[in-house]
What we know:
By secondary structure, the protein is of the alpha/beta class. It has helices at 9-28, 36-50, 66-70, 83-92, 128-135, 155-163, 178-187, 207-211, 255-261, 282-292, 308-318, 338-346, 369-386, 402-410, 423-432, 456-475, and strands at 56-60, 75-80, 97-100, 113-119, 139-150, 190-198, 225-232, 241-248, 268-275, 298-302, 323-326, 352-356, 398-401, 437-441.
Amino acid sequence: xxxxxxxxxxxxxxxxxxxxxxxxxxxxxxxxxxxxxxxxxxxxxxxxxxxxxxxxxxxxxxxxxxxxxxxxxxxxxxxxxxxxxxxxxxxxxxxxxxxxxxxxxxxxxxxxxxxxxxxxxxxxxxxxxxxxxxxxxxxxxxxxxxxxxxxxxxxxxxxxxxxxxxxxxxxxxxxxxxxxxxxxxxxxxxxxxxxxxxxxxxxxxxxxxxxxxxxxxxxxxxxxxxxxxxxxxxxxxxxxxxxxxxxxxxxxxxxxxxxxxxxxxxxxxxxxxxxxxxxxxxxxxxxxxxxxxxxxxxxxxxxxxxxxxxxxxxxxxxxxxxxxxxxxxxxxxxxxxxxxxxxxxxxxxxxxxxxxxxxxxxxxxxxxxxxxxxxxxxxxxxxxxxxxxxxxxxxxxxxxxxxxxxxxxxxxxxxxxxxxxxxxxxxxxxxxxxxxxxxxxxxxxxxxxxxxxxxxxxxxxxxxxxxxxxxxxxxxx
Length: 477
């Protein structure tokens, strides 16, 4: 990418004034903190949720390094243009790496990072788009860029707090909207995943306001800080191998169709079936079809536990493909649709592809009316919880990268282990990783063999329990 000249005379003056300002503020903070400590404490809590420990983290405009250190990175790099800020950061956090650099020119910085942070930095930059373009060279496809910045509504309250010496003095700011940031991200080669409004009461005793009220309308419109999470704009990738994992309980009549209809995708497709204590001859039928299809890489396992989630986890553990796909053995989602899921993930349009049964009209017996209404209500709830549109939470067809699943499995304890379906475990985990979730509409068909293993009332109550648990662990953090 070709960059324009760094600064004209006006830009140089702008930077010189700001460097002097932040140097003076660093010296002032040696003996003064003001009332901003509660605001920064809340920012730390939010970032600790968004950024898992032991990742490679770069913070642009790191100040004295306290936020970066709180995230416990495996490799933490902070940069700031203020020599006074950087000298204090180096003394305080010798385990981290700090550089005195201008965010507009990072050509001397090396490395690739899992997370890049600009916390309350874009308000103070001369050229926001240029800085985003500079950041792009440190990104891998899975890198997440997290930006938080002040809301214009707080311009007057912050000015009053500064006059009273209660908060750090600020020079003239870029009062940017979320739409402004989203547009500049696109211009710089990024794509926004989701945004949120945070910090309603940046003072003591703000727990209720900052954890709960700020998540709800109309209170969220008065939040102090806007957060935007983005990823590098997707680039099509090369051919990848695929594992289609199928939990099969009492599905003997569908096994032959599975082997005949699952298409070949990518550089190779394997079928992994996990049989779950069937009352019919499902396991024997699978073994017979495997022997009749020697050219199809396939494996069968007996499920040790109970529930679909347990079966899928075993299948994922045994899978060797780069991409993991779940297909329901009842074939209510046609296997012929799987190449669409493959194309969606390898093209980069999404990183977690979620099948949706609620777009197209269904066949007459495909879903009972109460189930349909319940799915609609749950989809609205989970879209609000996750900050990304999720139209159908219980469609069995889901596709993700195996590397992402490994991270979800490693952090499963965060959400608990009470989801018998596995759908929410995966959706919650993908959202916690800040992955781009994409809904892919499918035509939902009638069953041709067997009956559903879902109990409408028992499992419906379990779903309500998961909604409440997820609200505490995802939304109200």
